[in-house]
Amino acid sequence: MSVVTVQLGQCGNQIGPELFSTVYEDSTGAGRKTYQESSRERFFWETSDGVLVARSVLVDMEPKVISQAVAKASKSGKWRYGEKAHFCQKQGSGNNWANGYCVHGPRHKESVEDLVRREVERCDRLAGIFAMMSVAGGTGSGVGTFVTQCLRDMYPQAFILNHLTWPYGTGEVIVQNYNSVLTLSRLYQLSDALVVHENDTVHKICSRLMNIKHISIGDINKVIAHQLGSVLQPAYTGDSPSNYSRNPIGIDWKVCVPSSRGDSVRTGQMGFNRSLANLMILRGKDVSSADAGAFKDPALYVPWLPPDGTFSLWNSPVPFNGYEKSASLVSNSQSLLKPLDNMVRKAWNMFVSRAYMHQYTKFGISEDDFLDSFTTLEQIISSYSHL
Amino acid sequence: RTQSLIRFGQCGNQVGCRFWDLALREHAHVNKKGIYDEALSSFFQNAVLVDMEEGVLSEVLQGPLRQLFSTTQLISDVSGSGNNWAVGHHSYGSVYREQIVDQVRRAAEQCDCLQCFFIIHSMGGGTGSGLGTRVLKLLEDEFPEVCRLVTAVYPSAEDDVITSPYNSVLAMRELTEHADCVLPIENQSLVDIVSKIQHMAHTGKPGSVIKKDSTIISGQGGVAKTEKPFDAMNNIVANLLLNITSSARFEGSLNMDLNEIAMNLVPFPRLHYLVSSLTPLYTLADVNIPTRRLDQMFTDAFSKDHQLMRADPKHNLYLACALMLRGNVQLSDLRRNIERLRPTLSFVQWNTEGWKTGLCSVPPVGHTHSLLALANNTCVKPSFMELRERFVRLYRKKAHLHHYLGVDGMDVSGFSEALSSLTGLIDQYSQLDSTNTAPSQDPPRLNIAC
């Protein structure tokens, strides 16, 4: 079962190569044949000369990041990107969601669709499409949303998973909250699952858990890739206890909190965060004897879901990425409520003053479009608040 | 991706020369083999140089950078504009309109993707100010989708051109209406920076020796061998342009494009005047003295000593701020300093996290790292008010007005409209300032039916 990855914008094209490197190293270093084959099948295809090529399409509206990603992979000598697997333009999207969604997206729809189609057709069996992007900028968010829509139209039955990087709360792109609101309100309807990493949280992982003194963007990206890898690499699931799972994603979740290693469900300042569903993945030594009982406590979950649907446990005896034992938690809970609410609040404040509106309206996004997006997100916030 | 550089008048062309010289130096430093790299080549084809008298342009044609330009890229006349905006804008504007548009179009066609026009001129004279703003309008008409970024050198109060207030205010109206972004530069600020560096260089205090070629006024290592008057000041402006374009020319972990600058820093169309500050001004030579901590660099960027315009952003209201970091600086340094400095600054209520950030790996020559800050801040208001004052003082007495009104195409309404445009702009800043005093409360959120 294969996953086709679509890397969008600067962020998507920086994390993407890290993810492929992580899964490559993990499957190679593990020394377990079935695991390696399963992992490789999932993420790579092999040329006649035995070179591993990532099942990935790279999309950006400016060339520099893609060039770097492709060059770095080639230089590694371990795997590379497809020669014609990328699409880029020259002028960028200027951090403008409207420019990405209304102008670049439609303009290059066919080219991008062709590239994805080619990758999908190359797979024996498609597990799903994994789109990687940030929500703060212009290309990842704007073009990314448009492309997700196209993919949904092209493959209505396919499993589409979006990986979203949320920006620092203290600001990295001034219009980040606008771009995020416009993105999330649409992806919520289009995508099957949204996996979220917040830069702030990953930054704390780097500084507090890993004790990195001078944190670079590369460090952030590696942590994200590591966490994604630990979720996406093969594992024995409930439906498939002795074969590596065919479908990398076992539960239906929408907005997700970043996985944490070994932590229990995060309790926020608002009190307890109720979950809809949790997925725990244990890898390494003694996984079969691990006791995940605490995660099955019904008090953690909403009462109106059947108890056997709320908690899933996968495991793999293969240690992940050199860690003797590791645990990953993918959670659909209220944990993301506060960050989401903050983001909407700031975007709303800005919207009320009509700041930057002219930058969006000139490309075709109206104030009404903004209002619709806000409405959608307020409804999501409301739904999660009332869990 | 390319930018076209259009330089007007004496100031524009002199600054422009420093820009090319220092750009060559920067790329030569990175490409030790001296190979004409792709990033740089995209710049050089695309310059148009305009002056209405010959002196400066002929220097360019005879100078060491002459091979970079073909004569067709230069448009000139003989007698100059006599420091008269109307002559530049209307007379020469009409005469040379076609030629300039042609030349720009030709340059634009050579770009495989034209992203931005850089326009450089002074405000106080006749050609840069008058013809420059005429062409600005033309560019908007002919290339509406291409960003127009103007570096405008404003005269100081003691400027020796008496009519500079007229020229400046007439030009400002055009900038407000037709430019996407304006970086106002004040000669006095450049003078202050130059003297600060020279003072530092001559104190002879131990531990304060400046590393050779590391100041932002230095042109050493460039192609041009002799230093001309104003070179030091012009180098500062050239460095500003190098920093703004660094992300387009070199790689980095967080690219910051010119389009992104225009997008993030301009919340309302007319409020596009950005205060720039550059740091460091120089690097100390003595390796035994610990390099000034990175944090100091951030603090300096927010100090008035490093601004290219005399203004006080710290005591006024930020609408938006961009930080472009170059060199060996990490993300954590950037985030830490934003968090550290944020409480000392006032941001407008609807943009309390109004930061746009960029990281470029390659530092300027002679430095290990550098920082460019671009602030959209209401602190420009006092400078604009002062300019309006100077204008009104002349206008009230109708001093020298006949020189302008005698020019075909220029009439009194031009003056009154320019004045009200400036007044309107000042009012917009005032309105934003007034929001700062009101108690900040979040506006009520959307109420949705559950």
Total count of strands of chain B: 11
Question: What is the quaternary state of this protein?
Answer: heterodimer
CATH architecture of the largest domain in chain A: 3-Layer(aba) Sandwich
Helix content of chain A: 40-55%
CATH superfamily of the largest domain in chain A: Tubulin/FtsZ, GTPase domain
At a glance:
Chain A: It is found in: Cell projection, Cilium; Cytoplasm, Cytoskeleton, Microtubule organizing center, Centrosome, Centriole; Nucleus. The complex is a heterodimer of chains A (387) and B (450). With 387 residues, chain A is α/β, with parallel strands linked by helices.
Task: Supply the key terms.
heterodimer, A: 387 residues, alpha/beta, Rossmann fold, 60s Ribosomal Protein L30, Chain: A, three-stranded mixed β-sheet, 13 strands, B: 450 residues, Helix Hairpins, six-stranded parallel β-sheet, 14 helices, cilium biogenesis/degradation (chain A), microtubule (chain A), cytoskeleton (chain A), nucleotide-binding (chain A), Tubulin delta chain (chain A)
Describe the structure.
Chain B: Belongs to the tubulin family. Chain B: Residues 32-252 form the Tubulin/FtsZ GTPase domain. The complex is a heterodimer of chains A (387) and B (450). Chain A is α/β, with parallel strands linked by helices and 387 residues long. Chain A contains twelve helices and 13 strands. Chain A has helices spanning 9-30, 33-43, 64-76, 97-107, 109-122, 139-154, 176-190, 199-209, 217-232, 337-352, 357-361, 367-385; strands at residues 2-8, 44-46, 52-54, 56-60, 79-80, 86-88, 126-134, 160-166, 193-198, 255-256, 275-284, 311-316, 325-333. In chain A, the strands form three sheets. Chain A has a seven-stranded parallel β-sheet with strand order 6-4-1-7-8-9-10. Chain A has a three-stranded mixed β-sheet with strand order 2-3-5. Chain A is globular. Chain A starts with a strand and ends with a helix. Mean pLDDT of chain A is 88; it is low at 248-270. Chain B has two domains: 2-220 and 229-381, Rossmann fold (3-Layer(aba) Sandwich); 382-433, Orthogonal Bundle (Helix Hairpins), CATH 1.10.287. Chain B has a six-stranded parallel β-sheet with strand order 3-2-1-4-5-6, sandwiched between helices. In chain B, helix 1 packs across helix 5, helix 5 runs parallel beside helix 6 and helix 6 packs across helix 14. Chain B is globular, with a radius of gyration of 22 Å. The N and C termini of chain B lie far apart (49 Å). The model of chain B has no long low-confidence stretch (mean pLDDT 83). Chains A and B meet through helix 3, helix 8, helix 9, helix 10 and helix 12 of A and helix 9, helix 11 and strand 10 of B.
